[in-house]
Amino acid sequence: MSIRVNMATSLDGKIATTDRGKIRLGSDADIRRIAELRTWADVLMIGAETVRAEDPPMELNDTDACLCRRREGREEHPAVAVVTGSLNLPVGRTFRGPGRRLVVTTDRAPDPTPQLRAAAEIWRVGDARVDVLALVERLAAEGLERILVEGGGKMAANFFEHDLVEELFLTITPYLLGGDYAPTLADAAGVFESPPRFDLVDIESTAEEIFLRYRRHMEAE
Ligand SMILES: NC(=O)c1ccc[n+]([C@@H]2O[C@H](COP(=O)([O-])OP(=O)(O)OC[C@H]3O[C@@H](n4cnc5c(N)ncnc54)[C@H](OP(=O)(O)O)[C@@H]3O)[C@@H](O)[C@H]2O)c1
């Protein structure tokens, strides 16, 4: 199992505005980087709030990369998993397109609408909240071992809280968003008991952005 998080932030560390309005932070270079990471992934994970805010298309728009995956005996397109406790999801662009679609929810969630049931497999993993450890196990059992968490902040926090994130890919974009309550890339409900530390392993820059790659710090034995 290998888990990566990829997100773009403003100069002041926000991933969106306070009202979670639609805003594109990354440039075309960032979009190419997203495609590279999606090529690596077996499954792309996003939180329900991101689907409600953006209804993002979750595809690998790179024919060569798809062919390459097929030659390696993998699915051409990564699966997409949306995590939600409420099942309040628009059945729009996120649920269209190639690749398996999963909605991961809880035992307490209401029955899905017929539209949602037709658009995705519904998994119930956890009682009050989706149990991320159990989810990762279930994904692995289905051969979905490379997980790319694409946001938002609450979604990613699940993985940081359980110290599951192996690598963090961060794009620093040239905007200042402000806002006390604007989301950040790890919006955990509480504070981390022991703040996870990451080592910077790669840095690239263009005229407008910085691409950072961090790997989970391992204490020397
Ligand atoms: N800059 C970037 O790279 C980037 C990337 C992605 C998203 N975004 C932006 O980030 C904002 C959304 O981020 P966000 O932190 O507010 O929300 P989010 O992480 O996208 O979604 C949060 C929602 O996911 C569900 N969820 C997450 N963990 C769960 C768990 N363990 N059990 C049950 N449900 C769980 C809940 O859905 P329910 O409410 O349905 O129960 C929760 O309200 C949007 O504005 C989006 O555009 C930016």
Task: Provide an overview of this structure.
With 221 residues, this protein is an alpha/beta fold. The chain has a single domain (2-216), classed as Dihydrofolate Reductase, subunit A (3-Layer(aba) Sandwich). 24% of the residues lie in helices and 24% in strands. It contains six helices and nine strands. Strands 5-4-3-2-6-1-7-9-8 form a nine-stranded mixed beta sheet. Helix 4 (114-119) links the parallel strand 4 and strand 5. The longest helix has 13 residues, at 28-40. The model has no long low-confidence stretch (mean pLDDT 96). The structure holds NADP nicotinamide-adenine-dinucleotide phosphate. The site of NADP nicotinamide-adenine-dinucleotide phosphate has 29 residues, from strand 1, helix 2 and helix 6.
**CATH architectural name:** 3-Layer(aba) Sandwich
Q: What is the fourth-level CATH superfamily?
A: Dihydrofolate Reductase, subunit A
CATH topology: Dihydrofolate Reductase, subunit A
Q: Quick check: average pLDDT?
A: 96
What structural class do the secondary elements suggest?
A: alpha/beta
SSE ordering: EHEHHEEHEHEHEEE
**N- to C-terminal distance:** 22 Å
- The CATH C-level name is Alpha Beta
Radius of gyration: 17 Å
* DSSP strand tally: 9
How much strand? Answer: 15-25%
- Quaternary organization: single chain
Largest sheet: 9 strands, mixed
Q: Which range best describes the helical content: under 10%, 10-25%, 25-40%, 40-55%, 55-70% or over 70%? A: 10-25%
